[in-house]
Amino acid sequence: MKREVVSDAGPLISLEKMEGGYSFIRKLISKIIVPPSVLEEVFSGSFSTAEDYLQAFNIQDLIETQVPPVIPEAINSNPDLHQPEKEAIALALSIQKPLLIEEDIGRGVGDSLGLIISGIAGLVLQAQAQKIINKKEATLKLRELFEGGRLNRKLYESLLQNI
Amino acid sequence: MKFTIEVPEIEKRPKGVLSPGQAKELTEAIFAKLYDEGLFSEKQACDLAGLTRREFGEVLSRHDSGSLRYSPKNLNIELQQKSQ
After folding, report:
1. Order of strands across the sheet with A117-118?
2. Is position A149 within any domain?
3. Do B41 and A150 touch (CB under 8 A)?
4. Considering its fold, how many domains does chain B have in total?
5. Residues of A in contact with B58 (CB under 8 A)
6. CA of B77: which chain A residue's CA is closest?
7. Number of domains into which chain A is organized
8. What is the extent of the structural domain holding A38?
9. pLDDT class for B9, splitting at 50, 70, 90?
10. For residue range A131-154, what is the model confidence (pLDDT) as tens digits?
11. B53 lies in a domain?
12. Taking residues B41-66, what's their average pLDDT?
């Protein structure tokens, strides 16, 4: 059964780096919920509006924005978190959904608050384990994430050993 | 922590003085390396370099690195997805 998740900006950028990344993620996830600030961070610099971004990737039905609640102090007081990242963590916490996040500090905060967290690389492995994609496709997607600056070399090579 | 690389605005640079392009490339390489080694958080690196997260990711991709760094915990988080 496909899941609904909350996402920070990084995983969405990761999906852009993979050929057909958003089409791929639809096989695992039915809805990606983001705070407006995350969507703004993702489209800024490349598109004029959020709507342009969603149309360009044909994901108007996949991405849903939700205004986050008041950010809990345990999240808000952390100076090493980006503001959209704080909002994504707070949103995931408030609606109790898994959180896609690829930034270390935010992962630590999310984990400490009991959130289920993952990056896109993990979903590539999950898709292979569920035989949604084969080993060759999984290897290619991980390479795209590495070449796109989304995984560092050591993590990329470690993940390849586990395909 | 702050890094400053000053490049003189002169027509002919003496040997050993970096061009603005070279200085930018070197600065990016330093930030990428320090981030990769875990000495900066992503926010610290972005703030110091004056880059957005997307821009910093592009810098990392040019320097054989990436936003999601290796750590036993990060590896474990990704591997756990196989059994979800």
Report:
1. A63-65, A29-34, A3-7, A99-100, A117-118
2. no
3. no
4. 1
5. 149
6. A118
7. 1
8. 3-120
9. low
10. 999 999 999 999 999 999 999 999
11. yes
12. 90
> B55: nearest CA in chain A?
A45
Instruction: Please tell me if residue A72 touches chain B, with a CB cutoff of 8 Å.
Output: no
- Portion of chain A with pLDDT greater than 90, in percent: 95
pLDDT of residue B10: 57
pLDDT of residue A40: 96
Which token pair is A122?
Answer: 């993990």
pLDDT tens per residue, range A5-18: 999 999 999 999 99
Q: Does B10 map to a domain?
A: no
Q: How is residue B14 annotated by DSSP?
A: P
Please give the full DSSP string across chain A, using - where no structure is assigned: --EEEEE-HHHHHHHHHSTTHHHHHHTTEEEEEE-HHHHHHHHTTT-SSHHHHHHHTT-TTTEEE----PPPHHHHT-TTS-HHHHHHHHHHHHHT--EE---HHHHHHHHHTT--EE-HHHHHHHHHHTTSS-HHHHHHHHHHHHHTTSB-HHHHHHHHTT-
Q: Identify whether B49 is part of a domain.
A: yes
**Domain coverage including residue B44:** 20-83
